[in-house]
From TrEMBL:
Keywords of the record: Oxidoreductase
Species: Demequina litorisediminis
Listed name of the protein: Beta-ketoacyl-ACP reductase
InterPro entries, alphabetized: KR_dom, NAD(P)-bd_dom_sf, SDR_fam
Domain of life: Bacteria
The Ketoreductase domain, residue ranges: 3-171
Family: Belongs to the short-chain dehydrogenases/reductases (SDR) family.
Signal peptide (residue range): none
Amino acid sequence: MTRHVLVTGANRGIGRSIAAAFVDAGYTVSSIHRSGDLPEGVHSALADITDTDAVNAAFDALEAEHGRVEILVANAGITKDGLLMRMSDEDFETVLDVNLAGTFRCVRRATNSMLRQRFGRIILVGSVVGLMGNPGQVNYSASKSALVGMARSITREVGSRGITANVIAPGFITTDMTDELPEDVKKQYEATIPAKRFGAADEVAAAAVYLASDAAGYVSGAVLPVDGGLGMGH
């Protein structure tokens, strides 16, 4: 039986590439997202992950049609960048509500299904800045670093039930967002990366497919960097 993967925010960027990679690998793939279209072969449920009832209803609908979720890739996230002294309470709280609490809501619901079948893969999409920090991203960095503690606590709670929980920490990845950066800014970033280039979303997707596989059954509580060496030692 084909395993059911749910990728949050598969309508764009890294999430879109991850969902497409799972389709290509032969999985049944669904997404909870707020808007936009999805890659071919990905089943859709529209919901806001800041709303617990909406998350639960989306899971219920997708599972009724495609079977229990066995692999969760919690990818959906937002940024509201700004320097610490100018960052509003709202900009801090909104980012944490989506990136951290939203991930928690999805993980909590997915784990309910995973415990029943004694198998699960929880893959949290973090960020290199969650480990090494970044000016103007106190809120985003805090939300992403917290995912490490989340994954490790989940591992200790449910690791004996065939469930793993890991974090992928992408570095600078080529997406629509980075495409809009001025060339001189891109070059400044590239100069700090040992690989001297931005990563491709497909490279992050490959890490997700590995962590979801049977081959990664003994990998849990880990942080897997996909950052060209940028975050070494963090």
